[in-house]
Amino acid sequence: MHSTEENFFKAVIVVSVLLGIVIFYFIISMIKHHRLNVLQYKIKIKAEIETLENERKRIATDIHDELGPILSAVRLQINHLTATHQQDIDIVKKSNKYIDDVLTKTREISYNLLPNTLVRKGLVAAVNEFISKTTELHPLQCIFQSKGTISLSKDQEVNIYRIIQEITNNTIKHAGATLLQIQLYPEKDFVVLTTQDNGVGFDIDTKMTSGKGLGLYNLQSRADVLGANLTYSSSKKIGTIYSFEIPVVPPIA
Q1: Are residues 142 and 50 in the same domain?
Q2: In this structure, are 47 and 132 located in the same domain?
Q3: pLDDT by 10-residue block (mean), the chain, 253 residues
Q4: Are 101 and 188 members of one domain?
Q5: Contact partners, residue 190, CB within 8 Å, separation at least 6
Q6: Phi, psi of 148 (to 5 degrees)
Q7: What pTM did the predictor assign?
C-alpha cells in the first residue's frame, strides 16, 4: 500500500471516528432533551391537578361552611312566618321543598368535590360509598372489587379516586351501559386498577382527532402524574376497558 493510500485511509478512519463521536453526542443530547421535556410536562400536569384539587377543596369548604348555613337560616325564617290563608301555606310548603332540594344538591356537590370518606377512611371506603350513591341515582349497576392490602400515598388515593369518578361519569353519560365492573388489587410493585363496561364503545382515533376526547385526556393526565401505564380498548362487542398499572409509593405519614 502506497503511503498516499495509507494516509487516505487514516484520514477516513479519523473522520469516521469524529463523525461517530458527533452522532453519539447528538443522540445523547436528544435523549436528555426528550427526558427534560417529559419531566417538565409531568411537573406541569401535576401542578395543574394540584391547583384543581386545591380549588375543589376551597369550593367544597365554602359550600359547606357558608352556603349550607345560609340556606338553613332562610328555611328557618320561612317557617317562622305566620300564614293563615291556604295559598300562603302552600307557598311556604313549596319554598321549604325547594330549599330542601337545594340543600341536598349542595351536599352532593360538596361531596363530589371533596368526599370526606376519602380523607377519613381511605380509598376503598370512599369508592364503595361513591358506587353506592351512584347506583341509587342512576340505572347503572356498578360492581367494585378490592383485593389484598393496598398501601398508597394520599395523593395517589385522590388521583385514583378521580379516575374512577371520571370513568363512572363517562360511562353514565356516553356508554349506554347497564353494568360497570371495577377492580383494584396489588400486583408485585404495582397497584392495578381495571374497569370494564358493557356499553356501545367508541372509536378511539375518531374521539381523539375530533377534539372530543377530554375524558381520555383527563385519564391520561392522571396516569402521567401517578407514573402509571394506561392501556384501553373499546368496541361494540366488549364495551370499554381501561387498565392502569400504578407504581407503589410508600404513603407519606
Answers
A1: no
A2: no
A3: 66 76 77 64 61 64 64 72 73 77 72 73 89 85 87 86 90 87 90 91 68 73 88 84 84 42
A4: no
A5: 245, 246, 247, 248
A6: 70, -175
A7: 0.67
